[in-house]
């Protein structure tokens, strides 16, 4: 059923259904509340209100199903989904309370039964309206909060890092020399990328890329693409080399050194570093995106994954490109990490 609610015209159906539901559900609920307190309007508007409540149930179901389909593609905003799951049965309850109140007003039942039904319907209206607002707010927050709060770009540190050795990556001064749309370098997650050829083709517009030229674009990139594998892959094709200041990488403290002991601290699926062929990679955002399953990445967290990676992907360019997007830098010293033991199925393939 999720496929039916997945896309329309190549675009996700969820924004359409959720906006329709977020408008009609509170409007029909408020119309019911008005009819509870304004009896003279009931004859003219009650059937229309009951019809709107029925349509609201269908829209809340469509929003729920399309939301699950979208979550399967881009990830699950937990709070928004939990509230959306509550809204569907809540809209059903409101419909039946409204229908019961409507039928009671058409009978000769004692006045107190009509008043009781009206009171219950009013309470349900308040609950559903509040829930609708919370669902809408949580959805907007999941979509926009990180993008609005994150700065477009941070200025690069100009003071030299006393812990950096000579030749340890591309300097901030060098990156700042490439600060125009015709010559655009930017730092993202501790690596320097030449975005010049990408400016005119960026789907979000050239202005978004121009804003991070010659600067640290880590926050801007993460706010827009956090956890998405494809943008990371696209970015890896534009790699120039590692940035020479740890401040450009939010995964490193200014004095952090990429030793085996440091890698061991990042050994879970929520904080996953691994060493592959002498380079350290932060694979945290890729765990859930890995085509072969999260378990295969979890197995190399905090370990030396060189043999596991080479055994599965030796000589393949695409996995190499994907991996490059998560590079932190070379491992300091000789690896003392345990070697990851990974059992790949034959059909697993990046």
UniProtKB/TrEMBL annotation:
Ranges for domain Cytochrome b5 heme-binding: 167-244, 255-332
A GO MF label: heme binding
Family annotation (Pfam families): Cyt-b5, DUF2231
SUPFAM superfamilies given in the database record: Cytochrome b5-like heme/steroid binding domain
A cellular component term, taken from the record's GO annotations: membrane
Alphabetic keyword roster: Heme, Iron, Membrane, Metal-binding, Transmembrane, Transmembrane helix
InterPro entries: Cyt_B5-like_heme/steroid-bd, Cyt_B5-like_heme/steroid_sf, Cyt_B5_heme-BS, Cytochrome_b5, DUF2231_TM
Annotated TM spans: 20-38, 45-63, 83-104, 116-135
Family to which this protein belongs: Belongs to the cytochrome b5 family.
Protein name per the record: Unannotated protein
Organism expressing this protein natively: freshwater metagenome
